[in-house]
Amino acid sequence: MGRVSAVVGVGLVLAVAGCSEGVDGDAAPTSESSVSVSASPSASAQAGGSELPHSGAPAVADPLPESALPSDPCEVLTPQQVKEALGEGATEGERRDLDGLGPGCGWGNKKTFAVVQVGFDTVNRQGLSAAYANAKPRSAIFREVGPIEGFPAVAYKDSEDDHRCTVVVGLADEYAISAGISLSAEKEDAGVDSCGPAERIAATVVGNLKDRAGE
User: Fold this and answer.
1) Does the chain have fewer CB atoms within 10 Å around its N or its C terminus?
2) In the chain, how many H helices and how many E strands?
3) Which residues contact 2 (CB under 8 A, 6 or more apart)?
4) Which helix (H) or strand (E) holds 109?
5) In sequence order, what are the beta bridge partners of 155?
6) Cα–Cα nearest to 78, from 110, 115, 113, 118
């Protein structure tokens, strides 16, 4: 198992990993990483009722049609964008679907052991509210970073110097996308804030989805 790993569990919002050349310059092989990108709502969140948003999450004023999401999440980044993000030698996208959460895809670079993963949080129908209900109380760092391409977003990680960061963007009250970074050791040693690259990956993904929707 590589240095990047995350336990995936229903009811938890956990870290996604990744990197970029525009974002980081290097990435890890997805085959050596297990990363999560989303979460289904906890029992406490569900107990609050079915109204959205909840748990302090903002409403999405101008939702993106869910039809903009491709059936294959690995199509959410173009080959050129993956190359720009991960550098020469980046792997092709590999499906990383999560039961109860939604489709996902990961990319990596076998030389540098960093990885990027994107997921569609479409199954639990809680959108960004799931991140507020689950990730916020469990994460040492949780902050609002939106708007990203006009949509509310949050970033979270275990500590300020954590090499992993997850960004969740609410595209509608009922669904969201997640993007994450796990920096290469070189970038981590250089003190790069992993949430900056994660935000840039998220913005690229949302921009592509808006293009698909014709916006």
Assistant:
1) N
2) 6, 7
3) 28, 29, 32, 33, 113
4) strand 104-109
5) 143, 167
6) 118
Interatomic CA distance for residues 71 and 64, integer angstroms = 16
**Paired tokens of 141:** 């760092």
pLDDT in tens, the chain (215 residues): 344 333 222 222 333 333 333 444 444 444 334 344 444 444 344 434 469 999 999 999 999 999 999 999 999 999 988 888 777 788 899 999 988 889 999 999 888 777 899 999 999 999 999 999 999 999 999 999 989 999 999 999 999 999 999 999 999 999 999 999 888 778 888 998 999 999 999 999 999 999 999 86
Closest CA to 133 of 41, 29, 8, 18: 41
Looking up tokens 């590589």 gives 2
Please check whether residue 103 is in contact with residue 166, taking contact to mean a CB–CB distance below 8 angstroms. no
Name the 3-class secondary structure at 112: coil
| Angle (deg, nearest 10), helices 195-212 and 79-86 | 170
The answer to whether the beta carbons of residues 158 and 180 sit under 8 Å apart is no
What are the Cα distances from residue 115, in Å, to 5, 50, 75, 167? Answer: 10, 35, 17, 14
